[in-house]
Target: N-succinylornithine carbamoyltransferase
Amino acid sequence: MTHFVTYDDVTDLNALIQEGLNAKQNPFADQALGRNKTIGLIFFNSSLRTRMSTQKAAQNLGMNVITMNVGQDSWGLEMEEGVIMNGDKAEHVKEAAAVVGKYCDMVAVRAFAGLKNREQDYQEVVLNQFRKYAGVPVINLESATRHPLQSLADCITIEEFKVRSRPKVVLTWLPHFKPLPQAVANSFSEWMNHRDVEFVIANPDGYDLAPEFVGKARVVHNQDEAFEGADFIYGKNWSSYEQYGQVLTQDSSWMVTMDKMRLTDNGKFMHCLPVRRNMKVTDEVLDSPQSLVIEQAANREWSAQAVLKGVLQNL
Ligand SMILES: NCCC[C@H](NC(=O)CCC(=O)O)C(=O)O
Ligand SMILES: NC(=O)OP(=O)(O)O
Model:
């Protein structure tokens, strides 16, 4: 693996899932592989899981880790080419990425969607600028349109907990008062489209994801109908793609409750976290044995380790 930015960087998903499961069984088997190698973790946005699990995975592989929060620890970075830099950004990504690439053997970047300009967000400017100028492999820690380390952890979790060979997996929109990115939902859909699952997306009118991410999924606008017989309920809020970045409704009837979970076939509840309790999903669901959110977050370590191993092997 050279870069890990989209699903297209994966050559064999089953093998990558197996790598994650192997790492979970034997975390320190590849300690020698990352010796004297350094990963830079660059954050333009907040993080708990991605930051800690990626650092842990790198350390399990014997790597050194340098973490930086852009705009707090470092200078603000200009992304646009050819501009007069007379604003609040003191450094251009051309120099910054190139310099980081000198200190690090690979660079991992988190840069969320701005949710103001759809074309700009969907061009993945920040990730692509790092790819262009860092001169080392780039790993996506959640970009404007995708969160592939999350999706790999989700695949691992579904593999571990499925009770039938072709489970029914439902990605459902949840209510939230803030506009959130589509990245987690896009990515989950992209990856589920490559799995042997019955995949359904449930969202209110006006919240359909971009067609290239929906793929062959069945989209329904009735949550109860989607939940019937489901094995996995994957909850996430996202702002509208059509009316880009807008909150069109906060309809609380889309919150996941135990009554909703009873429509499933003893289904499991998944969410990437952080989750706002009793707004997106009730305490009762999150605190029940049907919730997999902690196991899912734990699998972020093994997902990151599988990917970093693949990149190290290709250096
Ligand atoms: N990395 C996991 C999700 C990150 C982000 N959530 C958030 O920003 C939640 C913020 C809040 O609930 O205030 C998102 O939806 O893409
Ligand atoms: N799920 C996830 O990416 O969590 P963080 O935003 O805390 O990293």
